[in-house]
Design a protein that fits this description.
By secondary structure, the protein is mostly helical. The protein is built from 14 helices and 2 strands; from the N terminus they run H-H-H-H-E-H-H-H-H-H-H-H-H-H-E-H.
Length: 311
């Protein structure tokens, strides 16, 4: 009902997230990689468009539901993302949002049992949520994937997610959520971080770039490339994002660049980018983690002391 026909896809998703998804305007702006003021205007215009259209909110007949399904799945995906990695505030995760996204996606799966992308989205959520208990420490500090205690991962969720993914992939048509779920499954299959099949992950990102190109996909593709072909190759792939206004000023670009520079051995420049990333995130957990990474590298014998000059 909320995915109103009078709106563009992006406005539909934004308004639905605000009206029924439990997300603030700032959180929605973070999901769309736009300033909060821009998103506020988009939501306001969407409300005005619905009012001007004269088309009421109403349940759709079955034959009209498929065209709105893409927007519905995107809404559920973004609710889960905000629950799994909160973009604002002191807590890294919002369990209420993540659980509600999974519950609603299960409803969609029950209503559309033969839709491969619905199954792919549910698989993605389960395979990702399975790591939730290992993502934070005793003080709610962020623990990155390669440092997590994998014995804490929820094997029941991994098994269920893998089952949904396998069934979805067998239907032939491979979409955005199935590919992301496949990447999550490869991570979950690795008993240790060093056992991760990065060439397979890279191959999935190559497909994802063709199916659903975006700056975030480009960013993750650069990471996978670095893990397979070395950090220099990954850093090269980050350069086009410096001129993409959706990600150029985003903390994730600086954080990834810092990580790849650290892999390359350029600790001094890595420290600078970790600090820039920390200054740009609105998540306290991420900010603390990034500052800790900068401090760790500064204490490393490979990182020269910063020189100061007297004005």
């Amino acid at each position: 009902m909320c995915c109103h026909p009078a709106l563009t896809s992006s406005s539909t998703i934004a308004l639905t997230l605000r009206a029924v998804g439990g997300l603030t305007t700032a959180e929605i702006a973070n999901a769309f990689l736009v300033p909060e003021a821009t998103m506020a205007q988009r939501i306001s215009r969407a409300k005005q468009s619905i009012k001007a259209s004269g088309v009421p909110f109403s349940l759709l007949p079955p034959e009209d539901r498929a065209e709105r399904l893409t927007a519905v799945l995107h809404v559920l995906y973004l609710i889960f993302n905000e629950g799994y990695a909160s973009s604002i505030g002191a807590h890294l995760q919002r369990l209420d949002l993540a659980r509600e996204a999974i519950r609603l996606t299960r409803c969609a799966k029950n209503l559309l049992p033969d839709d491969a992308e619905v199954a792919g989205l549910l698989a993605l959520m389960l395979l990702t949520d399975a790591r939730r208990a290992a993502r934070t420490g005793s003080d709610e500090e962020l623990i990155p994937l390669d440092k997590q205690d994998r014995s804490l991962w929820d094997r029941t969720e991994i098994s269920e997610g893998t089952e949904f993914l396998t069934a979805a992939l067998s239907k032939g048509s491979v979409g955005l959520y199935q590919l992301q779920a496949a990447i999550a499954a490869v991570h979950d299959e690795a008993a240790r971080a060093e056992d991760t099949d990065w060439p397979q992950i890279l191959a999935f990102y190559e497909l994802l770039k063709r199916v659903s190109p975006s700056p975030v996909v480009t960013l993750n593709h650069a990471i996978a490339t670095a893990m397979v072909h070395g950090p220099s190759k990954g850093l090269e792939l980050l350069k086009p994002l410096d001129s993409d206004n959706r990600l150029a000023e985003h903390h994730r670009l600086n954080a990834v660049r810092a990580h790849l520079l650290e892999m390359l051995g350029d600790h001094e420049t890595a420290v600078r980018h970790y600090r820039i990333a920390a200054s740009r995130t609105t998540s306290i957990s991420e900010q603390n983690y990034l500052m800790a990474e900068a401090a760790r590298l500064e204490e490393s014998p490979n990182c020269p002391e910063e020189k100061t000059t007297t004005p």
